[in-house]
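Appendix B, record 7
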Amino acid sequence: MAKILIKQGRIIDPANERDDIGSVFVADGKIVSVLTEPEGFVADEVIDAEGKVICPGFIDLSTRLREPGHSRKGTFKSETAAAASAGVTSLCLQPDTKPVIDTPAVAELIKELAQKAHYPQVYPIAALTQGLEGNELSSMLSLKQAGCIAVGNASRPISNLLILRRAMEYAASHDLVFMCRPNDYWLGNQGCAHEGAFATRYGLPGIPDTAETIAVDQYLELAVLTGCQVHFGQISCRRAVIKIQQAQKYGMQVTADVAIHQLHLTEEDMVPFDSAYHVLPPFRTAKDKEYLRQGLAGGIIGCICSDHQPHDLDAKLGAFPETEPGISALETLLPLTLKLVSQHAITLEQGVAALTQTPAVILGLKAGALTPGFAADICIFDPDLQWRVDSENWRSKGVNTPFWGGYLTGRVTETLQAGRLIYQLSASQSRSKA
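Structure tokens (predicted):
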């Protein structure tokens, strides 16, 4: 494998408390040195990173690639290409594929599809219950042995708390993280927007924030009872942040992430009846957004994810409540994180840590750091490069994003996965500066 020199960039590596100008040396798919040139090192390839940031490759805790089962919306080939262009080198795949990731055979299929797409670092999340139906437990041990990195029930409800307790006990016994999106399905009442001013004004069925906070309470109580490690995915409201903060204050080992779009958009930003804004959990109030930002800055929410959900055009046509929720979000992950930095909501180091170091720690991955001996998963980006969200710059099959047609600042120029260059921005695309 080629020896690569990434020279003279700003190296930001929160795991090693590093923020320096210098070079990174890669050989045999691994990082061999940072700043100091190894004796006798002769590069086969040189990447000039002057004026750019060099950081660990991003780890995305919640994605849908739409294969298997929904290839009209996206494929491993199209969505991993989008991930590579976004600096994401590790993807956690939610279990609501078709078929569901509830058997080792499906987990093996996921790994095979990833290999065919030349993007092997796709980590399946095992279904907590068979078929995600909330009735019978899945075989978590065999799923873990087949390569599943955690367990979860995607967005599907589990109505029987005894079954949920047993599932969490089973997950704890096999040292598996339970990744849950807190939402009481029945309180949500098949809503499509936050139960507030926007939903009232346009006559849309609303989802109260209580649907999230009650679910958080249930999971926290069962975490105490079972000893299960719980990770709350895609938190959306103020009171959920407060509850998680209180749990952490009293010593509970619970973690959380937030979808990047929830840190920027609220119900006030929604364009009436535009299904690009139909997401679950829904965009909530400005106060909720501010608490999410404060939770991220304070370390209560440790990670940022894309919650990538590409859709075909048919899925987003029709009356707002009848459309399918979700945003195609991989390619806006970095620039929207950098926008938080420019707005002084977080520091650049905090943003990088939320995309690299903290997700790696939660999942127990030997990744998320530029540590010698680690696989060379590296993202290089130009923080000042302005680009337009349009078909010329977009790789995902899903174009369902409220940012379509707008301009964003900050773009990945190169991505390495285990020392292999999987993405490089073309010269013509790298000319526009903000």
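Remarks on this record: Residues 210-226 form the longest helix (17 residues). The mean pLDDT is 96.
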